[in-house]
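#random but structural
TW: two for the price of one
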Amino acid sequence: MKIFVDTAEIDEIKEANSWGILDGVTTNPSLIKKAVEKRENIDVEEYVKDICKTVDGPVSLEVIGLTREEMVEQGELLYEKFNPVNGNVVVKIPINTNSPESSVGEYEGLKALKDLSSRGIPTNTTLIMKPEQALLAAKAGTQYVSPFAGRIDDYIRTRVGLTRGDDYPKSAYHDADWLRHASYLNLKSRYDELEGEELEKIYSDKAVAEVKDSISDDGIYSGSSAVSAINRIFSNYEFDTAVLAASLRNSRQVREVAEAGADVATIPFQVLEEMIGHYKTERGIVSFSEDVVEEYEAIFE
């Protein structure tokens, strides 16, 4: 699995690149904003060029338009302006730019993907929340689809009745088994008073069906299961599109999308740092250091 770092912080990109594990970078307008706000009198264009120079792998840069025409024009501009720097620009296009605020139509992203693909401009389709969207993007010719595993998890937790911040921190991870257990407890609290034949009511109770349905999003039980489903679909039909797992919140989720067969994981810098550490590794270093005898140490002198 290739590893991209999900940041626009040049220092983080350089540090991750120095580890010898970095294959690319993904950015978005929010990450760019966060990076440039820390600096005074910054030339954003030169800053983005520096990002492209720092790594030899793909660098995803996102459009800001919502219509097909805007996204194609901006995608061409990003590619023409920054790809000559290191030949590694990929244009990020949202799968669906329609919203209550925009009302531009649900297929503008697909149209833009097709247009950019026909011009030989590589794309990364972002904000993928279900396998069906990934299938459409692959058909439109995109090079990458980015399922947002962390946000998928958040949405499913919301359906269970949990709220991020109140019930769990952003970095928390609850897998599908945990959600099933939460639903079981929900059902148990409803029916603790039932006995004998009354228990049969559970199987015909609409509330039970609603609780069972709440632990998934139309059959998707977690972000990693969405990645797995997309990977199976692409394997079935031999799509060349790479599955790029995004919105990863902790090292366990990185492991699970790797197990699910993701081609790429784009990982926030703090999660990359989390991946390397383990208490027993630290204790092992202590014990190995303490056990060095003088005769062995002399070999290195």
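TW: number two ↓
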Amino acid sequence: MRLASLFPRSLTYRVIAFSTVWAILALLVIATIISTLFRQASERGFDSLLSAHLFNLISSVSLTEQGLLIGSPNLGDLRFTQRGSGWYWAVEPISDGVIGELRSLSMYAPIPSAPVEEIPFNAQFQRDYTTDGLNGELLEVLESEFVMDSQDRVARFRMMGNRTELEAEIAAFDRQLYTYLALFGIGMIAINAGAILVGLQPLVRVRRALTDIRQGNAQRLDGSFPTEVAPLAEETNALIESNRRIVERARTQVGNLAHSLKTPLAVMLNEGRAIGGEKGRLITDQAHAMQQQVEHYLQRARIAAQRDSVVFRTPVAPVLERLVRVTRKLAPDKDVALDLGGSEVIFGGEREDLEEIVGNLLENAVKWSRGQVRVSLREVAEDTGRFDIRVEDDGPGISQENKREALKRGRRLDETKPGTGLGLAIVADLVKEYGGTLDLGRSELGGLQVSVLLGRAAG
């Protein structure tokens, strides 16, 4: 499975998501580095402070002739005078001849020293370790054994610092660091997302322009686009123009073919009628069949060319009103009603094709009706992409078994009625080419009801 398939197809989402992940990872790495550096610096400072205090302590304590430890160390830190502060010092005798013990005021009880067997002194007679303090705090202990006089009498100097206090300071710094970096990260991500959205606006404009072209509101991509998007707009305009030329050329060729075949077929029909008899009828029938086939395939070619090009937009209501008005004039004895239902529907096709569909249905309904014809327009509630045109009459209708026959090209169910039998077949072809459906049913008026579902133009 490709990694790209795991993410939504939105380019905006992907860019923002990847930049956000990268920003979070970068901030986490920065926070870790800063926190580590601060810890190292704090621990070095802590150790240096303990070492400085230890040397000050050693220089402040001496030994009397009798071997008594004496001295009043002033380390310049009030924490050594505060009871149980976690900062202590002590001087203890090690060798014979040394008596007495000195402690800081903060050290109100003895703190055991670690056994030398477990933590030995180094070559400089120093060692450091951690132990528990008087109030449960963690202590960092730095010890040194020092020869006090020429008699090689030795005392042990212990300097103890509050390690828990150090860890608390580091934790407080980390909390502040992550809080500030989180706020900075949120702001950076928001600014980054805004910059990306603004940067991708030209693509949004291209999409809207293409929607206008698809809906028939524009003929090309107009406007000023950035350098990165301008070639796309230019190539799209070139493609639209090339497609338009192809459609126009196809229309011209279709028209030329229709005109070039019209005269020869008319001559053949006239000659067939003039010859008469069986041979003349055969010529006439074949010429008539050729005429129907030519008309059929030329019509399909023209519609196919239009469907593959830019979508047309045709308001349906004005077309129906005009056709009904003409029909009323041509058939004044018929009651032709029109019900638009308040719909403002836009047909996604050419006006001529819609007129041919409705015109053939109206002509058929008027021819078979006894006096009433009704045309209605409705939007399909469960399918907003389509609309329904219904043409009904009060004629004899069509039986269930004759419905399929009525849609065959050139098939006439009643030879006494004038016509070529092409009306419903042409309508069926046109509807099919536009991806619609045609249904023959029984009308409430008593005759035939023809329901045509066609696609609406977007927008």
